[in-house]
Prior knowledge:
Layout: H1 14-19, H2 31-43, H3 52-89, H4 97-100
Helix pairs in contact: 2-3
Amino acid sequence: MEVEGSSKKMIATQAEMVEARVPLPYRDQCAHLLIPLNKCRQAELYLPWKCENERHTYEKCEYELVMERMLKMQKIREEEAKLKQQQKKQPLPLIPNTATAS
Length: 102
């Protein structure tokens, strides 16, 4: 499944996420990494020094998604600023077109 506006694909299916009881806010392109992380956490009784590799890969995936969104927003802001600059450079007509129409 392809997610609009992202370079990462959805790997985990909706059924897998429901079965693994992944909360709705966490059902993103990194959910396929969260499922084994949560299973490991439950198996290891949530000990913080366990499941470090799974946690690291999940957090790295989330970080990459955030950075991708930030870069996309930065490009949008730059395009908007460029359009504003172009609009400022165009002089306003002294006589509106409606006044000269006969």
